[in-house]
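Recap from last week: sequence in, structure out.
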Amino acid sequence: MKVILQQDVKGQGKKGQLIEASDGYARNFLLPRKLAVAATNENLNTMKQQEKAKRAQEAAERAAALEIAEQLKSCMVKIPAKAGNGGRLFGSVTSKEVSETLKAQCGIDIAKTKIVMDEPIKAFGTYQLKCKLGYEVSGTVNVVVTESN
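Predicted structure tokens:
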């Protein structure tokens, strides 16, 4: 019996897949638990429309990520910080501060978890930080840490 999975089923397949299951397994386990629906023409058409909508949504999100990456190239984030002798900062500049300042200065909202910092910034200077925007798209944030008055 051919069925379309509504949820991931261990050993059978992923959500949205069309699989061939034995009649008893489908009738007694998959269908009553709403893990699958029978593969009728109507259900197959619905599955195809859902896949098409999902691909369109992914394409739109990828285009948005590419647009944000382009905006990041022209944006320079200036973060004021207090420092002691030798230009070392009191504390450090973290990805959270970079994210908040980026939103305030450039209007670009990127989650702090998407900003890649090998280690926190602890000195004045110019830094380039990578941002993982999803869908294998990454951008670069230019950060300038300056002395606050």
